[in-house]
Amino acid sequence: MASASSLLSEEQFLCSICLDVFTDPISTPCGHNYCNTCITHYWNTSGVCQCPLCNKTFCNRPEFSVNKVLSEMADQFRKSKQQRQTSSTNPEPAEPDEVSCDVCTETKPKALKSCLVCLTSYCDTHLEPHLRLAGLKRHKLIDPVKNLEDILCKKHDRPLELFCKTDLVCVCQFCTESDHKLHQIVSVKEAYEGKKAELGKTEAEVQQMIQERQVKIQEFRRSVELSRKDADTVIAVSVQDFTALISCIEISQAELIDVIEEKQKTTDKQAEGFIKELQQEITELNMRSSELKQLSHTEDHLHLLQNFTSINSPPPTKDWTKVNVHQSSYAGTVKTAVAQLEKTLSQEMEKNLHDAELRRIQLCEVDVTLDPDTANPYLILSEDGKQVSHGDVWKNLPNNPERFSTCVDVLGKQSFSSGRFYHEVQVGGKTAWTLGVVKESINRKGVNTLSPNNGFWTIWLRNGNKYEANASLESPPVFLPVREKVQKVGVFVDYEEGLVSFYDVVARDHLYSYTGCTFTEKLYPYFSPDVIKNGKNSAPLIISPVNHTD
Hints:
By secondary structure, the chain is an alpha+beta fold. Among the domains are: 4-88, Zinc/RING finger domain, C3HC4 (zinc finger) (Herpes Virus-1, 2-Layer Sandwich), CATH 3.30.40; 221-331, no CATH class; 372-544, Sandwich (Jelly Rolls). It is built from 8 helices and 21 strands. A 7-stranded antiparallel sheet has the order 9-10-21-12-17-18-19, with helices on one face. Strands 11-20-13-14-15-16 form a 6-stranded antiparallel sheet, with no helix packed on it. A 3-stranded antiparallel sheet has the order 4-3-5. The longest helix has 109 residues, at 188-296.
């Protein structure tokens, strides 16, 4: 609601006697208004009850009551006037981001409106004439705008109230009659609404781009997290591996030292025997030397002749000229030990590399459950979707397009079209099974040859001991050398690298890999428990969680 100060002029609130704003105004019978005190004092001093303005005389002094409506309006006008006087003498300066009054010369208060005709912004005090004078009321007032000249046509100095959709520029009315005469013209408001809608659409697109990049950030963070886990696993396994290798080297070194020392002991023992035997012969020779000396010094001719024959010849001794202490050659021993160590280290490193590789791959574990809509009617699935086995009873199930109708197969519910994923399946107690991944478009209504050519990347067991894979239709199946019967199979896929690998989880050994694959559609985990034969192979295939503590 407009205030009294904006609807009435100041003269309408002034008492014609005191020339000030009404105080307790009253109205005379002739219709004029005065302050109660002013008219009472005027009549008391003049002695005649006469209206000061129209000179109408009243026989009896009228009884007055305060005009409440006029009194309230006068009080409101007085307060408004005081506020204007206060603000005009000490106005609050406009903030840096606010439009200031162009008329004020010292302190620049905040502007309330901008005039498109005057090209001036006004504060509350200087806006008042535009609200009161008829000529100024026709001017177009808008919310305060900085740089008013920017909203005027540079050529015609008229407000830019129209928009040319042909040239995509704002124009004035005169422009539509000259440079933009045949162009598609709409009001600024209509163009504003259209562009605002476009901005909304662009904003939605930007938000979508933001969300996509936020998702990408999460992917990167997930990759970094997996990489960190991978690094931690490799470090832990490497420490174990190198510790084991160092221990292996130390053991080999100790064994080599034992062999060398044992050979040296043999040499020592042989030399000691020879020395003892030589010392015995020396003792006997010394005794003979003494006897010869005694006999040579005797003067008894008969005694010398009688003993000469028995003493003159040396005592029996060994011919030591060809006797030598055998010096052991350790080069062959060391060479043999080093060769054996290299073989052992190679085996250990290969085993450790497979173990480290499997540990890294296990970090890509995904939760896989069996899809009952794809299961052959002979198959029995557990309620949790983690086990499948062959049954003797054909179940009456809908023959939907996804279901295998001929082969006893079932797929996982989860599909993958990017990234890396891994799961493990227990196969212990079975004599036949097939595991791997398949593309979405495989034939599900007939017999399939298990080959990448037909969309199958699998390995299988037949007859309890025959493990195979099939790289292509043009070549026979590949026999997989397995040292011990596989109890648990790990299946790993790297979609972008075109890699499908299989592992013996218990033996920590690599079984087989399909490399250089080209994946162009969704991949699904594939399971076939095979049929029961002669009461054998009734055990289920079991999808089991990865044990990361092994």
